[in-house]
Automatic annotation (TrEMBL):
Signal peptide: none annotated. It comes from Methylobacterium organophilum. Residues 23-190 form the Band domain. SMART domains: PHB. Gene3D superfamilies: Band 7 domain (3.30.479.30). InterPro entries: Band_7 (IPR001107), Band_7/SPFH_dom_sf (IPR036013), HflC (IPR010200). The keyword Transcription regulation does not apply. The lineage of its organism: Bacteria, Pseudomonadati, Pseudomonadota, Alphaproteobacteria, Hyphomicrobiales. This is Protein HflC.
Amino acid sequence: MNNPVLRTGLIIVAAAIVVGLYASLFTVGQMQQALVLQLGRVRSVLNQTGENKPGLYFKVPFVDNVVIYDKRVLDLDLPVQTLLTADRQNLEVDAFARYRIVDPLRFYQSVGTIGLANQRLASFTNSSLRNVLARSSRDAIVRTDRADLMNEIQEDVNQRAKELGVQIVDLRMTRVDLPAKNSSAVYDRMASERKREAADIRANGDQAAATIRAKADRDVTVLLAEAQSKADQMRGQGDAEKNRILAEAYGKDADFFAFYRSMQAYEQSLKSQDTRLVVSPNSDFFRFFNDPQGRPPAAGGKAGAQTNAAP
């Protein structure tokens, strides 16, 4: 009777011991830092500065409470907001921040949770963005002084973030654009400017083309005139040479020359299938038809006869 009771009691005691040990033990990782709270009062801070190493720790069960925070860099994505610059330009700014919890005790006392810390840091960052960028021009924000402005904003936010026990390690603007309406207007103006430049380029091109075309036409006219002049000159020289040769040939054999010229005349004048010549048969044109020697016919021939000839 006593053995089962004793066994049950031992099991209960062992279970209580196990539960007590489980409730009294906790671990702090390499990338974590912890606060040990005793009835709401902070008893110790673990793994904050490296004095307390990460590992296994004890606490009073059901009396102490442990709050774990991450030691790594945390992300803070800011909503896109519209800012007015010093030169009265509206800009849409999209930024982000990276921060680290450097004082977990102050962090716990001021905000307590990551979500509330993100809200407070977003408020600080947006306020600093508005104040700093409102004193700068659009060109300075977009091109010339962007890095210096971001450093100034980061320093300002860090001054206010000390109250939360955090440190801003990086703050950047990922995108700086004009609002949609302004972007459309700027795009239309740029398109108009490009069209005007294109029209100027086309006009200059047309003028250059007309100049080149006129020069080419002038050069063609000059070349044709020079070629025609040279052709006429060469043709004249050829005719003169031909006449000289014909004269020499005539001087060597006048009868043969007369016969050759008559044959050429017959070839040129009797080409058609039905050639009609109204001449006298005794005409000098047909002297080689009447006599191979080309002697003139005897007197008394009929004048005005019609002669049909085919080539």
